[in-house]
Amino acid sequence: MKKESKKLLIGIAAFIVVLVVALILYNWLSGIFSPEQHLPTAANFTVIDREDNEIHFSDRLTEGRPIVLNFWASWCPPCRAGMPNFNRIYQEFGEEVTFMMVNLTDGRRETKESAMEYIEGEGYSFPIYFDTVRLASNAYGVQGIPVTFFIDRNGDVVSVVTGQMSESVLRAEIEEIQ
What we know:
This protein is α/β, with parallel strands linked by helices. The chain has six helices and seven strands. It has helices at residues 3-33, 57-61, 77-93, 112-122, 135-139, 167-177, and strands spanning 46-48, 54-56, 67-72, 98-103, 128-130, 147-151, 157-162. The model is unreliable at 30-38 (pLDDT under 50).
């Protein structure tokens, strides 16, 4: 065999070995870092309701129902666009699923009053809560809104959806946690 042919065969063999090792590493790392396998257990937090009562997430979890935990603000266009879907689904599933619509109330851009004015003006009936000291949003690492966490009755976060959701996606996510 010629010297050039040997070099070509060695190069091809080396390339195949690198591909096999890369494939093995990819499959191994995918299993470690797959978000579906490593979603967190729901974190506890305290928010306030419309009457300024402290509400502990853990109390809602002990009710034994799945939880839809949504973070939103009235100044957020995608949040506002998704609210009619949440309201329709809440009216349908409100007895079977706990809805926690948590408003990011910073006191400047969003106040409790501005959030309540928006909700009441639109006629939404789902329960809203106010995260006035960022306990809830910090507990869930909220970086942008809207973001919704779907939590099963055992307190495990089953999925997270960032951005506005269609009614069909919201319905499908709820079916996964029931």
